[in-house]
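Input chain follows. Return structure tokens only.
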Amino acid sequence: MVALNPTVGEVLRGVASDYQSPLYFLLLHFWLKLGQSDLWLRLPTALLGAALVPLVYVTGRRFFSPAAGLWAALFSAVTTYQVYFSRYPRSYILLALLAVLAAYTLHLALQDAQRRRWALHGLTVALALYTHPYAFFLLPPLWGYAAWRLYLRGRHQFAPLAVTGGLALLSYLPWAGVALAQWGQVQAGADAWIEPVSRDSLKTLYDWLWFKTRAEYGPGPDLLLRGGRYLFTALLLLALWRSRRREDLWLVVGLAVGPTALAFLFSLLVIPLWDPRYLVVLSPFLALWLGHALASLETPWPRRGAALKPLAGALLVAMSLPPLASLYLDPAFRAPEIRSASHWTHTRYLEGDLILHINEQSYLPALWYDHQEAGSGGGSEQGFPAPCLWQSLPDAWCDRSPYRVGYVNLERQDFSQAVASESRVWLTVLYNHNWPGEAAKAQALVERLRGQSFRVGQAARFIGVEVYELVRAS
């Protein structure tokens, strides 16, 4: 929604008010000038996620071996942590791509200290910083490794790293004040994307790094997922021990583990900025570590152990099937049909009706669809004021909505009071899989309304979305 502001200045204003960094939204702003369909909106992140797979292969081949690159690319292609955020129109998968590119370009620069290679690395780091603040947590392990390698060559070799790093950080100065102001306004637990940190935060991240899902599969698939995680974790540690003198492996391990520790400690000691979605940036480095572990897998019995690698690959693919099935087949994980529900409601909307949402993740895209369809004959020419949940929304959406729309936060507002003076309400209910129990809460609300002064009918059902018609009883 930020990228749909009409000018670059308003996009930057929206980004500043939404705890984000500007690069992705500026790119999306110009991208959406070419088209505004749902497919077109999601296509950039899908392309970035797809590009991450071959980049991981190339990086694994350079750091370790072609076999390690193939194993790492396989994991990158099947882990739902990366697949999910490759469908998510935010900056997280772009940061993951730039992080791997920063490691790759640093490796090039350390091998052959040409100015253009250091310049390419510095540019990649600067782009990462302007993509998301979590890029800062990548810099200590990234540049710490580089400083260690340069130290082994002699102290006079530090100049390229110092100049590159200094210029990359200086390039961030125009946005530094905005970022500090954003961080100072964070309230963990109250903000939509920031949560208080605890030991459960690390466990959640560990689970997500393998396969992001909250679906319930039953004892068999759940045992496969848990057992596979523990087995592959043991392989990671075994490879780390056996290859402990391999410098490139320590760079990968540092980038897989270091930002987690830094973000966790920063959230405990300074400002809470923790959310597992931000740490999707670690997933490609876990893939590289895993790729090396599988490629170097050996046993004392070569003949009997020859089948271990294909068996490990089969297990990895089998572990991916339940989460991928949930992501693509389970209605709770599929993209909700907000557009279809909005269009259906618009065709039945009469002057004076209220279109009401109880989930901000249906309300915000519905506002977009309202404006897209305003020219089809529905709505009002003058427009209606709409609740503006965030300052990042385009002003026209808040000031001149073509339909009467509303939003009720059930945790903080009285739903009955919100509809007390209404004759007919179209209640849009989105079943968000990230909020367990939401479906039951919505059903309880509907049943309560049946006992009050409204006749309630389930007007239409879509994938992940239901629309109820509330008509005041005479």
